[in-house]
Amino acid sequence: MAFELPKLPYAYDALEPYIDARTMEIHHSKHHQAYTTNLNQAIAGTALENASIEEILTSCKDLPAVRNNGGGYWNHNLFWEVMAPDAGGHPTGRLAEAIDAAFGSFDGFKDAFAKAATTRFGSGWAWLCVSKGELEICSTANQDNPLMGEGCQGTPILGLDVWEHAYYLTYQNRRPDYINAFFSVIHWGKVSEKFEAALK
């Protein structure tokens, strides 16, 4: 089963001014496409060829090409899903209650998430995960993610790409500005759906 690059649920310019159209186009059609193509090549003819992406991620620790490209494929799928135009604001319902319980308040969550994203040295991701029924924030290097089960574990429901290709055209070296802008495009309805699914 070959994996395919997912279509974005919005236009490349839909997240402006927070994420510019050119960055979105390059990020999706070049970077994500490359991870997709290289993942398919890496698993072709192997026992992983017909596995789900989640099955691949739990068994790829010692396979760098599969790990890097499989992670890149899955991570970006989530990244596009949890953003939307005219989004941002605050979560509601059980997700809001869980955020308050874990981080004290929504502002407490934002501070902790921004710290995880800002302090990730080099390239990587910041995550909001469900672990044993509770919310946790962590970060991973490169294209690793919590499904791989090393260090940072759980089911990711929100992820932020902090590789420079995700923000450099607009923000250059100002990663904190990019992180702050991300909060204005989070689709909390989608994140809430993923939260509820992770609890089942």
Q: What does the secondary structure layout of this molecule look like, with pairings?
A:
Blueprint (H helix, E strand, L loop, with lengths): L20 H23 L9 H5 L6 H18 L11 H11 L2 H13 L5 E8 L2 E8 L13 E7 L6 H4 L3 H8 L5 H12 L1
Antiparallel strand pairs: 1-2, 1-3
Short précis:
The protein is built from 8 helices and 3 strands. By secondary structure, the protein is mainly α.
Features:
200 residues; mainly alpha; 47% helix
Task: Explain what this protein looks like in three dimensions.
It is a single chain. With 200 residues, this protein is mainly alpha-helical. 47% of the residues lie in helices and 12% in strands. The protein contains 8 helices and 3 strands. It has helices at 21-43, 53-57, 64-81, 93-103, 106-118, 168-171, 175-182, 188-199; strands at residues 124-131, 134-141, 155-161. Helix 1 (21-43) runs antiparallel to helix 3 (64-81) and helix 4 (93-103) packs across helix 5. The mean pLDDT is 96.
Taken in chain order, the helices and strands follow as HHHHHEEEHHH
Q: How confident overall, as mean pLDDT?
A: 96
- The tally of strands reads 3
Strand fraction band? 5-15%
Low-confidence stretches: none
